[in-house]
Design brief:
The structure holds two protein chains of two kinds.
Chain A: E1 5-17, H1 25-37, E2 49-50, E3 61-73, E4 77-82, H2 88-95, E5 103-108, E6 112-115, H3 128-138, H4 143-157, H5 172-184, E7 190-194, H6 202-217, E8 222-226, H7 230-236, E9 239-244, E10 247-253, H8 254-263, E11 270-272, E12 286-295, E13 307-315, E14 322-330, E15 335-342, E16 352-360, E17 368-378, E18 382-395
Parallel strand pairs in A: 2-3, 4-8, 4-9, 6-7, 7-8
Antiparallel strand pairs in A: 1-3, 1-5, 9-10, 11-12, 12-13, 13-16, 14-15, 14-17, 17-18
Chain B: H1 6-9, E1 13-15, H2 26-31, H3 33-48, H4 56-76, H5 86-107, H6 110-113, H7 115-118, H8 127-157, H9 170-192, H10 197-211, H11 227-231, H12 234-247, H13 254-279
The chains are: A alpha/beta, B mainly alpha.
Chain lengths: ~425, ~290
C-alpha cells in the first residue's frame, strides 16, 4: 500500500558553502548563472564532498546531506539519531520548510508542524496569554483553534498564576514549559521535534514524553523525533534512522538503530594509533597508543552496564615515579572524578608500552555524554603530558519503571529502598 | 500492478529545490491571516509598553519634524510653500511621507530582523511585510487625525486653503503608497539577504528619495523643464494629490496618479515574486 505513506524523501541533498558567506558571491553567482544559461551543471556543486568534519577539504562547498531517501507511514514514530553534525538538524530544517534541499524532493501528505526550538517568536514584553496566541499562530493555528485549547495549554504548562505577566519576568523553567505547552496542543498530521525535551526538569520531561506518546498512539499522528536520549527513542519510536556525515547509515526499527549507533563507534569511545610511534598523540616522553571505553557487561554502555576503560601508552622516561590520571567530565564540563593510577612507585619506570585498565561499576554514572582527560605525571606533581577531551562516550539511559526521561544529576544509583506502611 | 501517478497519491505538498516563478502563494497568506493580525498587535504592545508617553509619541513625532522643517526649510532656506500656511504645508508632507518611509524601512529589513525566527519555524514569510504595512497604517490613521485637527482649525481661521472633492481619493492614495512601500521593501529585503551593504544604503537612500519627492517644497516651485525628473518618482503624485485635495494648491493630474498606480502594481508583483524565491533558501545565506 502506498497510500498510507505520509512522507517520502527522494534523494535529497543539501549543499553548503564553507567559510565566509557574502563575500565574493557575486562572481560565483555570475558563474552559476552562466553555467545555467548554457545548460551545464552548477560548477560549484559538482565537486561537493561528503561532510566528514575530520578531513579538511580544499573545497569551499560541502554536502551537509547527501542522497537521503526514506518513507514514513501514517502513525509511525521515527527516531533520528546521530552524532552532532551528522545532518539531523539540516534534514529537519528541510522537512519543516525552513530551508530547501539543493537536489531531490520530499513529498508530504498533511499539515506539518515543527518544533526545532521551543518558544520561537515569543516576545519578552508580551504576557503569557498574548504569547500563547502569538506562538500558536506562528506554528499555524488559527485564533479560534487556540481559543478552544487555551485552558488545556495553560493547565499543561502550570503557569496559571503568571498568565498575565510579561514573559520576561518568567523563570527559564516557566518559559520553556509554557512554550512546550503551546506546541503540545498543535494538531498537525505530522509533528517534527528536535531535542526540545532536553529542557525542563525531570517531571516536565516525563510529561512531555507522555504527551508525545499520546499524540502518536491515540491520535494516530506521525512523529519525527531527533534525540540523544536513547531510552526515549527506544520507548517512543517505532522506527529508527542513524545518520553519519550527512548520509543515512542505518534504517530499521528503533531498537536496531539504537544498537547500531552504540556498537558502531558512532561515539568516538575508541582510539587506536596505527602507524609510526612518533606520530602518535603525546610528546617525546609519552605517546598514547590506545584508549577505549567499553561496557563492563553486555553490548552497550548504559546506566546498568558499567564501564571499563583501557589505556595503552608508550613511556620513554626511565627510572621515575610515573602516574596516569583519568579525569572524567560531563558534557557540561562538570568534573565527575579525577583519579590517578600509580604506575611505578620506586623510581623504576621503564621505557616501554604500559597498559592500564580501570572500571566504573554499574549504577553509578547517570546517562549522558562524558569526556575523558588524561594526565601523565611524575611524582604526582610534575606533568609530563596532558590530553584534553581525549575520548568522548555516551552512557545510555534506561527507563526507571515507566519513566524514560533522563533523571537529573550526575549519579544514577540503584538505591535499595525499603518501604513500609502503617494505617 | 502499479500504475500510480503523482495525482493518485494526493501529496499535499512537495518540497523541492525550486519554487515556481509565478506561484505567489497568496492563499497561504490568507490562511495565516490571524498571524498577520497578531504581529500587528505585537508591534503595538511591544513598542509602547514601558514608555512614559506611550501612544502620544505618534503625535509628537510628526509635530517635532514639522517644527524642525518650518525653521530650517521655511524660515532659514525660505523655500516656497505655495502660499499655504507653513505648519499645514509641512505637516501634510511629513504625515504622508512618514507612512511611506516607515513602511519601506521596516519591510526592507524583514529578513535581517527576523533571521532568528525564520531559521526555526516555517510560516508564510509574506505575513511579516504585510503586518508591517498594516501596523504602520494604524499609526498613519492616528497621525492623519492630528493633521485633520490642525486642518480644521485653519479652515475656520482664514481663507488660505480650499479643499475639494478629490479628498475622497485619500484611501486610494494610502493604498498605493502602502503597496509601493511593500513592493520596494520586499525587493530590497530579498536582496539584503545576500548583499548586506544595501542595509547601510537604505537609510541614506530613503533620505535622498524624500528630497526627490515634493515633501518640503511644492512641485510648482521647480523650473518646468526639470519637473519630469521629480514626476518620475511615483511618490510625487501621491504627495501632490493629497495636498491638492486638502489644501487646494498643488499639482493634480489623473495621468500622474495613474502612472503611480501602474508603477506600484509592477513593483508589487515583482517584489512578491522575488521575495517568494528568496524566502525558501535565505536561511543559508543570512
Amino acid at each position: 500500500m502506498s497510500s498510507d505513506i505520509v512522507i517520502r524523501a527522494e534523494g535529497i541533498g543539501k549543499l553548503y558553502k564553507l567559510g565566509e558567506i557574502g563575500t565574493g558571491t557575486i562572481s560565483h553567482d555570475l558563474n552559476r548563472w552562466w553555467a545555467k544559461v548554457r545548460g551545464k551543471e552548477d560548477p560549484f556543486a559538482k565537486v561537493g564532498q561528503s561532510n566528514d568534519h575530520t578531513v579538511k577539504s580544499n573545497n569551499d562547498y560541502v554536502w551537509a546531506l547527501k542522497d537521503i531517501s526514506f518513507e514514513v507511514k501514517q502513525g509511525e514514530v521515527l527516531g533520528i539519531i546521530g552524532r552532532n553534525g551528522a545532518g539531523k538538524s539540516t534534514l529537519l530544517k528541510i522537512l519543516s520548510k525552513v530551508t530547501t534541499p539543493t537536489i531531490g524532493n520530499v513529498k508530504i501528505k498533511g499539515r506539518i508542524a515543527s518544533l526545532l526550538e521551543v518558544g520561537t517568536g515569543f516576545h519578552q514584553e508580551l504576557t503569557g496569554r498574548e504569547n500563547i496566541f502569538l506562538n500558536g499562530a506562528i506554528l499555524g493555528m488559527s485564533k479560534a483553534e487556540i481559543k478552544s485549547k487555551f485552558d488545556e495549554i495553560v493547565d499543561f504548562s502550570g503557569v496559571e498564576r503568571y498568565i498575565d505577566t510579561p514573559v520576561k519576568r518568567y523563570s527559564s523553567g516557566m518559559y520553556v514549559r509554557l512554550a512546550f505547552a503551546v506546541a503540545a496542543f498543535l494538531e498537525p498530521e505530522i509533528l517534527i521535534i528536535d531535542e526540545v525535551l532536553a529542557v525542563g526538569d525531570a517531571e516536565f520531561q516525563k510529561k512531555c514524553l507522555g504527551r508525545m506518546k499520546d499524540v502518536s498512539e491515540n491520535d494516530g499522528k506521525t512523529v519525527l523525533f531527533v534525540s540523544h536520549n536513547m531510552a526515549a527513542v527506544k520507548q517512543l519510536c517505532t522506527l529508527g534512522m542513524v545518520m553519519r556525515n550527512g548520509g543515512l547509515v542505518f534504517e530499521g526499527d528503533a531498537q536496531g538503530a539504537v544498537n547500531y549507533y552504540q556498537t558502531s563507534h558512532e561515539t568516538n569511545s575508541y582510539f587506536e594509533h596505527i602507524g609510526e610511534l612518533q606520530y602518535a598523540p603525546g610528546n617525546d616522553t609519552i605517546r598514547i597508543l590506545k584508549f577505549e571505553v567499553l561496557p563492563l557487561q553486555g553490548e552497550m554502555i548504559s546506566v546498568s552496564s558499567g564501564i571499563q576503560f583501557e589505556l595503552q601508552f608508550f613511556n620513554k622516561k626511565k627510572g621515575i615515579n610515573l602516574d596516569a590520571t583519568f579525569e572524567l567530565r560531563t558534557a557540561d564540563e562538570i568534573p565527575v572524578f579525577h583519579h590517578g593510577a600509580l604506575i611505578s612507585t620506586n623510581n623504576d619506570s621503564i621505557e616501554g608500552v604500559y597498559t592500564v585498565k580501570g572500571k566504573v561499576p554499574a549504577f553509578i554514572l547517570n546517562a549522558g555524554t562524558y569526556k575523558f582527560k588524561l594526565v601523565f605525571g611524575e611524582n604526582q606533581r610534575h606533568v609530563l603530558c596532558l590530553a584534553d577531551d581525549f575520548i568522548q562516550f555516551e552512557i545510555l539511559n534506561e527507563a526507571l519503571g515507566s519513566n524514560a526521561s533522563i533523571l537529573p544529576g550526575i549519579l544514577r544509583l540503584d538505591i535499595p529502598y525499603q518501604i513500609s506502611v502503617k494505617d | 500492478m502499479s500504475h500510480k501517478t503523482e495525482q493518485e497519491e494526493n501529496w499535499t505538498e512537495i518540497i523541492g529545490p525550486k519554487a515556481k516563478l509565478l506561484d505567489l502563494r497568496l492563499n497561504e497568506l490568507w490562511r495565516y491571516r490571524d498571524l498577520v493580525l497578531m504581529f500587528v498587535r505585537r508591534d503595538f504592545v511591544a513598542n509602547y509598553k514601558q514608555t512614559i508617553l506611550g501612544p502620544i509619541w505618534f503625535f509628537l513625532q510628526p509635530l517635532l519634524t514639522t517644527v524642525t522643517y518650518i525653521f530650517i526649510f521655511g524660515r532659514m532656506a525660505g523655500l516656497s510653500t505655495d502660499g499655504l500656511p507653513m505648519l499645514l504645508f509641512y505637516l501634510a508632507g511629513v504625515t504622508i511621507w512618514n507612512y511611506f518611509s516607515e513602511t519601506l524601512n521596516k519591510t526592507a529589513t524583514v529578513f535581517k530582523d527576523n533571521a532568528q525566527m525564520f531559521g526555526k519555524v516555517y510560516f508564510p514569510r509574506l505575513t511579516m511585510p504585510f503586518s508591517i504595512v498594516l501596523s504602520n497604517l494604524v499609526r498613519f490613521a492616528i497621525q492623519i487625525l492630528l493633521f485633520i485637527i490642525v486642518w480644521i482649525w485653519y479652515l475656520f481661521q482664514n481663507d488660505t486653503i480650499h479643499p475639494n472633492y478629490l479628498m475622497v481619493l485619500t484611501p486610494v492614495l494610502v493604498l498605493i503608497m502602502g503597496l509601493l512601500a511593500l513592493g520596494l521593501g520586499m525587493i530590497i529585503s530579498a536582496m539584503t539577504t545576500k548583499y548586506k551593504d544595501l542595509i547601510f544604503l537604505l537609510t541614506f537612500g530613503i533620505q535622498l528619495l524624500m528630497f526627490a519627492t515634493p515633501v518640503i517644497y511644492p512641485l510648482s516651485s521647480l523650473p518646468e523643464q526639470y519637473q519630469w525628473i521629480i514626476l518620475a518618482n511615483p511618490m510625487t503624485a501621491i504627495v501632490e494629490t493629497f495636498r491638492y485635495a486638502f489644501l487646494g494648491s498643488g499639482t493634480f493630474s489623473w495621468m500622474y496618479l495613474g502612472y503611480s498606480a501602474v508603477f506600484t502594481v509592477v513593483i508589487l508583483l515583482l517584489g512578491t515574486i522575488i521575495f517568494n524565491r528568496v524566502e525558501k533558501s535565505f536561511t543559508d545565506t543570512v
